[in-house]
Amino acid sequence: MRLEINKQPLMRERIEAPRPRAGRRRPPLVLLPALIIPLASDLMRSSPAQPSATAPAKPAQYVQSLGESLVKLPMVPVPGGAVKIGGKPVTVKPFWMARTETPWEVYDVFLASGPASPAYDQTEFPPDAVARPSKSYILPDLGWGHNGYPAINISYLSAQMFCRWLSATTKKKYRLPTEAEWEVACRGGAAGPWKPNPAVLEKSTWHSGNCDGITHPVGKKLPNKFGLYDMFGNTGEWATDPKGEAVLCGGTFRDAPAAVLPTTRRRWTPAWQETDPQFPKSRWWLADAPFAGFRVVCEP
To answer: Which tens digit of pLDDT belongs to each residue from 169-224?
Structure first.
């Protein structure tokens, strides 16, 4: 079948608007604002990008309980940073550090948590073992003060065992700070060569010029910018150097103000146990090092 296509031009009808009736006025024409519908691409260009997830919260201070005792250990976040140790730059990740040097009442909970080690025992402990110090043959606090005062005459091994016990008790990773961590915390965010400020030092530090020859209760001077107390004086604090060896960091109550620096270091010498009558000498207590204390850190 053949289809015939009408080739005549299409007729366009003229449609006229109805005329108003006589006697009536045509209402005025009201122009409505144009409705603008933006394209999706325009919205994407003009709208700020929305974060895909909530930004992580800034680490907060916390208070660590010690088993069933009423004693607490306040911990402060340290943001990390970079320092030079032995002339080499070291980067430190954020961590928590005890607000103060370990006071006697905290250390006493550890001492009372199990049997004391034999006085002359020289057992080599595996990395996960927890042992407690032997009985001290002298008054450990030397009669200077106990609750609230820093634990003193503490050996590096004793401080390490405290950290192992605290980790096992709390199921958190407590340990002694590295040398770099300790210095970052001590500096409180300051970088470069250290410039002592005598006025600030007097308000924040127990040194040989103001201590009357003894240690003083922790947290009585002003803290540094990280909220850490007694980082410059009172007792030196055990840390672990890059070689894994013990180093006592910071100035002590025996040091002159000029020697109370974030770079001050000491190493154990036989003089620290010169009056210890035991043989072999105690590996738990340093009879002639009342300047040796410690504070702990906790890994995130």
So the answer is: 999 999 999 999 999 999 999 988 888 889 999 999 999 999 999 999 999 999 99
In degrees, rounded to 5, the angle at the alpha carbon of residue 127 between the alpha carbons of residues 80 and 66 is: 65
CATH number at residue 200: 3.90.1580.10
Strand order in the sheet with 292-293: 265-266, 246-249, 236-240, 292-293
Distance in angstroms (rounded) separating the CA atoms of residues 190 and 208? 24
182 in any annotated domain: yes
Q: Give the domain range for residue 146.
A: 90-298
Q: What are the structure tokens assigned to 42, written together?
A: 């325009």
pLDDT band at 56 (very low <50, low <70, confident <90, very high): low
Total domain count, the chain: 1
CA 141 centroid distance within chain: 28
What whole-number distance in Å separates Cα of residue 184 and Cα of residue 194?
Answer: 12
**Does any domain span residue 71?**
no
What's the rounded Cα separation, in Å, for the pair 250 and 248? 7
CB 299 within 8 A of CB 175: yes
Residues 6+ apart with CB under 8 A from 147: 103, 104, 105
Structure-block tokens of residue 105 = 């009442």
Q: Name the nearest CA neighbour of 83 among 249, 270, 293, 287.
A: 249
Q: Is the pTM of this model over 0.85?
A: no
For residues 289 and 137, what is the distance between their CA atoms, to the nearest angstrom?
Answer: 14
